[in-house]
């Protein structure tokens, strides 16, 4: 006799189901958007929150980490907006066009939308969903992803940015999406869509930050479509509060003969899952995917990367560095798939972890899945402590222990930071690394 086994819903899963039932008719969008939400939530509800028995989430058990479902974020008040005026300062003096979201809601008065370059349009995702925006049919269709966190984001997506860069256009300065969360226990589901047409050029910066003492939950997603011969740089800065749970997803499809660079810089959050799904949709494209995680205390950071070489003649380089102190735990999962017919693929992946404490942990899981025979592919992983010989060399030349360690740590992560093409942003992030190292002493 076959007995159907139904998993017991957790408090968080029941809370999410109740939330969706209560707000689905109030969320922006109807017709096809509402149907998309319903389908996405049914997919999530069938499996629930991902847990350690789901291979892709083996090291980040979201069902265990998410004990309850926080209420949806309230609209920002005047005090929240006042605090958000200084948000995004992590990029220092780098000139950018700010697009500000407070508690997940677009705030026009804090954003810089005046004098947009020819061919550049920026609008609110909530307005795009509620209206008949020409780009909304692309939501959920840029890269096909079967992931519970993405499905949940699709079901409950509220606001975000919809950015379009027309063919041949170029942004004069980086577009800075600033996500600021106030001191209210809440959950946020932001969704953004960026379409960069053929031959265009753009740089996109995302920064996420919030109150240090507040327990809040973030599920954010960005869909990025890069046209043929376009050049796009994407930098994500995750500096959430010390109690925050942050899950972010990037789904990027890159056309032929394009150039795509992505960099993630992770310093904040109690538990962070930063995942990327990259699909090569055209031949002869070059992509550089890099990241740095700086962890202390009991921080948990999971960088998961899926690179799909669906066509031939493309090159990808993946380099992720993690520095863990205290009881920090770093996870890297990277998978490169080379599909049949994707000949002349050149793909190399490396992940390295530096453990500064005996209690720190690093889990590295790089993978290759190759179905073509004329390729150059490789991967590697290392984890270890500071090189004592190098420390001795520096100390023998009169450099104090703490300064010697700082130099080695900055050199270790600098290799990844150097992949950022924007010189000013490179300098700012290296200063942030130095500031993080200084907090250890």
Walkthrough of the structure:
There is one protein chain. The mean pLDDT is 95. It is built from 9 helices and 19 strands. It has helices at residues 11-23, 32-47, 62-65, 78-84, 125-130, 148-156, 388-395, 401-417, 423-438, and strands spanning 97-102, 105-106, 120-124, 161-165, 175-181, 187-196, 201-210, 217-226, 231-239, 245-254, 259-266, 271-280, 286-295, 300-309, 315-324, 329-338, 346-355, 361-370, 376-384. The protein is globular. The protein starts with 10 loop residues before the first helix and ends with a helix. It folds into 2 domains: 11-282, no CATH class; 387-441, no CATH class. Strand 1 (97-102) and strand 2 (105-106) form a beta hairpin. The longest helix is centred in the last third of the chain and has 17 residues, at 401-417. A 10-stranded mixed sheet has the order 2-1-5-7-9-11-13-15-17-19, with helices on one face. Strands 3-4-6-8-10-12-14-16-18 form a 9-stranded mixed sheet. It is α/β, with parallel strands linked by helices and 441 residues long.
Strand order of the largest sheet: 2-1-5-7-9-11-13-15-17-19
Gyration radius, to the nearest Å? 21 Å
* Structure classification: alpha/beta
Q: Which of globular, elongated, flat, extended, rod-shaped describes the shape?
A: globular
Can you count the helices? 9
> How many E strands?
19
Task: Calculate the terminal CA-CA distance, rounded to whole Å.
Answer: 64 Å
Overall mean pLDDT stands at 95
Order of helices and strands: HHHHEEEHHEEEEEEEEEEEEEEEEHHH
- The total tally of domains equals 2
Low-confidence stretches: none
The fraction of residues assigned to DSSP E strands is: 35-45%
Give the helix level as a range of percent. Answer: 10-25%
Biggest sheet layout: 10 strands, mixed
